[in-house]
Design goal:
Helix content: 25-40%
Number of helices: 12
Largest sheet: 9 strands, mixed
Shape: globular
CATH topology of one domain: FAD/NAD(P)-binding domain
Number of strands: 19
Bound molecules: flavin-adenine dinucleotide
């Protein structure tokens, strides 16, 4: 007897409010047994882009999600489409050499190309993808020197001219904040409405005949010895598949079947607030170029303007998803950068988990000869998950996509995983102290 699964609605986000029509609803709950080539667990960017790659190759697949499409991070993130990893390219060069740095740089930019091409191919205009660039704003002269050195290295060593330095006055004019001493603009980046994007992918896959089953948690996964197929048990039926792709990222612990993948990660809560529509004068003054903006503090905050509202986000190691903690601190941080927003009402507050990894890079690999996984986007998965889901599909079919440092030899659980929550808090507290003293 299987336990009933709780129905989880999409969180109450600005994205849900802006969604243009009824939720993606072709995804019926699985109510029969199925035999397929590949079963994909997770209907976020990773799982749906894996489905895309399989469908393109004519491989029969099904996508199973415990929740509605985009319920995970894909429907609630900040919508920043970026061409970078958490580990900088000069650091990758120092640790792994120039060839690897070049390959990783290529992969990072390919992620943005994939988002562009998905939006085109599936006509996801309502996701409002804008290739406006991303401005990294320095909070100290020391931080500015570090990001300028990085931009310089990328330009001279990788011949990438997309990163340019901005003066204090330029950053102030563009953002409307006096809180920064300068910045670096990455032109190959943009913004998107994340829930519209994931729903657009789901609609596209459904139109091409890929079944997407919502409210269908995979509760058990097993393979009898000598059986070529894996059996996935869900409340409404079993799926037998030759290959399984686990695309559950920071939500892998929803059931015990996928929980081992959570041990590859340190989940970190990321929280966001969205203001009411700004008065016209503020709207005309703040973030006039409509880019995304990040800052250089270790406990990084980021912001953008959507629908005439300020959207402000940041990592919060101390709260749990669904709790109301952390939002006041976020509002204080917003007002300290934008004092004019002191009286502006906050209309939306929400949070979700990002999957951090110990090496600060995503991991794509096979956990056994029938199971492939992709996860650990370190808070930058809009573009990367759109790319790596496809690479996971290729791996599952026995191909050898270019993965460079993202290729994982197998599951590598974080050491002392059970201590990760207190560990994260300790590190975050230390980072907050360093940020506060400007170190
Ligand atoms: C608040 C927040 C802000 C962010 N901001 C940005 C940003 O601005 N830019 C950026 O690039 N990235 C950002 N990210 C990260 C980005 O959203 C993620 O990296 C990306 O969405 C991961 O996609 P995914 O498909 O791998 O996982 P998810 O979208 O999390 O999907 C996983 C799915 O797996 C399902 N699932 C889990 N276990 C099971 C099971 N046992 N059976 C069936 N289904 C299961 C879940 O229901 C879920 O729908 C942010 C994340 C958060 C939380």
């Amino acid at each position: 007897m299987l336990a009933p699964t709780p129905k989880r609605p999409l969180p109450d986000t600005l994205w849900r409010a802006l969604a243009s029509d009824a939720p993606f609803s072709a995804g019926a709950t699985l109510a029969r047994d199925l035999d397929v080539e590949v079963a994909i667990i997770g209907a976020g960017y990773s799982g749906l882009s894996a489905a895309y790659a399989l469908q393109k190759r004519g491989v029969e697949c099904v996508v199973l999600d415990a929740n509605p499409v985009g319920w995970g991070a894909s429907g609630r993130n900040g919508g920043v489409v970026s061409s970078k990893f958490r580990l900088s390219f000069p650091t990758i060069h120092t640790l792994h050499g120039l060839d690897t740095a070049k390959r990783m740089h290529r992969l990072a930019h390919e992620g943005v190309r994939v988002v562009e091409s998905f939006v085109d191919e599936f006509g996801i205009g309502r996701a409002r993808f804008e290739h406006t660039g991303s401005l990294r704003c320095a909070h100290t002269e020391r931080a500015l020197a570090a990001i300028c050195a990085e931009a310089d290295w990328v330009r001279t060593t990788l011949n990438d001219t997309s990163m340019t330095v901005q003066s204090r006055a330029e950053v102030e004019r563009e953002t409307g904040s006096k809180g920064f001493v300068g910045g670096v603009l990455s032109a190959d980046a943009g913004t998107i409405l994340p829930l519209e994007y994931v729903r657009g992918l789901a609609r596209g896959m459904t139109a091409r005949g890929v079944p997407i089953c919502e409210s269908t948690p995979v509760l058990k996964m097993h393979r009898a010895s000598g059986d070529a197929r894996v059996t996935l048990v869900t409340p409404g039926g079993t799926v037998r598949a030759k290959q399984v792709i686990v695309a559950t990222n920071a939500y892998s612990d929803l059931t015990s079947a996928t929980a081992p993948y959570q041990r590859e990660l340190v989940p970190f809560r990321s929280a966001m607030i969205a203001t009411e529509r700004l008065p016209a004068d503020l709207d005309a003054r703040l973030m006039v170029e409509r880019r995304s903006y990040t800052e250089t503090r270790r406990m990084m905050k980021w912001f953008r303007k959507v629908d005439g509202r300020m959207l402000f986000g940041g990592r919060d190691a101390f709260g749990k998803e669904g709790q109301m903690t952390g939002f006041d601190a976020l509002q204080r941080a917003m007002v300290s950068l934008f004092p004019d927003l002191a009286e502006v009402r906050i209309d939306y507050r929400w949070s979700g988990y990002v999957g951090m990894t110990f090496n600060s890079l995503p991991h794509v690999g096979r956990s056994d000869d029938a199971t492939t996984f992709c996860l650990g986007y370190n808070g930058a998965g809009v573009a990367m998950a759109s790319l790596l889901g496809q690479h996971a599909a290729a791996l599952a079919l026995g191909e050898t996509p270019e993965l460079s440092l993202l290729g994982a030899p197998g599951l590598r659980p974080v050491p002392f995983h059970s201590l990760r929550a207190p560990g994260v808090r300790l590190v975050a507290a230390w980072y907050q102290i360093l940020d506060a003293i400007g170190a």
